[in-house]
Amino acid sequence: KQHMARGLPKQKPIAGVKQVIVVASGKGGVGKSTTAVNLALGLTANEPSKTVGILDADVYGPSIPKLMNLKGNPELTDNNLMRPLVNFGIPCMSMGFLIEEVAPIVWRGLMVMSAIEKLLRQVDWGNLDYLVIDMPPGTGDVQLSITQHIPIAGAVIVSTPQDIALLDARRGAEMFKKVNVPVLGLVQNMSVFQCPNCNHQTHIFGKDGARDLADTLGVQVLGDIPLHLSIREMSDSGKPVVVSSPDSPEAEAYRKVATAV
Ligand code: ADP
Q1: For the chain, where are the E strands, in sequence order?
Q2: Which atom of ligand 1 approaches the CA of 27 most closely?
């Protein structure tokens, strides 16, 4: 009641989940979902005894079904909870499992909140050591509301080294600080492109932008992910690099992020 009086919803843990790690970005298209998926797979690759799940909180543009090669409707348990769909040993839940892929949804504010509420509270995760949440891009009401409803162990912020993406990432980092969610660090994505023919390296989006921002914010850089064709191709075909080419430098880069969080 006191919380309500101050206008703050009460934080309640997600049943069965030990630690929540959110993966966020200031804007779309910087590789947040790709990082979330490979981070989750990296966590199990590094510690096979740990159980890891993925919650796709990006209700506007759910990409976990495609990235994890999953589709179908979740079954309901006897308690009317949704059973996650599982691939590569990772239980996943996404709005994409609950709506038609092609049906356009005109989300209104309240509908978004009730969809998020459903995804946060009506899933039977079993027991998870880590739940990785793929957040919607940006720093609006939905993101804020998620941080206020559940306890979060830490946030990973994904950005390209480009100025504009960094500005948005900074806004994201400041939002988490404001609500007392520890920022675990930044992932600098698409930092370097190595030509597969001549091996020349090009910094398409700039070089050390995320590193400089991390210094400014006083957080660490958890890893540098190169701009690599196989990351895009594997993501599109639902076989994330950490499982499909575990010996590649790209997979190694994601596992390094998983070690650092
Ligand atoms: P967001 O979740 O931030 O919108 P996505 O993870 O969906 O971004 O990535 C956007 C696009 O960029 C996807 O096609 C994805 O495959 C591609 N992508 C992401 N990271 C990389 C990378 N390091 N190298 C190549 N392509 C990437």
Answers
A1: 17-24, 52-56, 85-87, 90-94, 128-134, 154-159, 183-194, 201-202, 221-227
A2: 3
Task: Please tell me the pTM assigned to this model.
Answer: 0.93
253 lines ligand 1 (CB under 6 A): no
Domains of the chain, first to last? 2-260 (3.40.50.300)
Ligand 1 center to 223 CA (angstroms) = 15
For residue 87, what are the β-bridge partners?
90
- pLDDT over 90 percentage in the chain: 67
d(CA 237, CA 227): 17
- Ligand 1 pocket, residue 188 CB under 6 Å: no
Instruction: Taking residues 128-151, report their average pLDDT.
Output: 93
Q: Which atom of ligand 1 is nearest to the CA of 35?
A: 6
Q: How far is CA 149 from the centre of its chain?
A: 17
**Residue located via tokens 């994505």:** 189
- Compute the distance from residue 237 Cα to the ligand 1 centre, in Å: 13
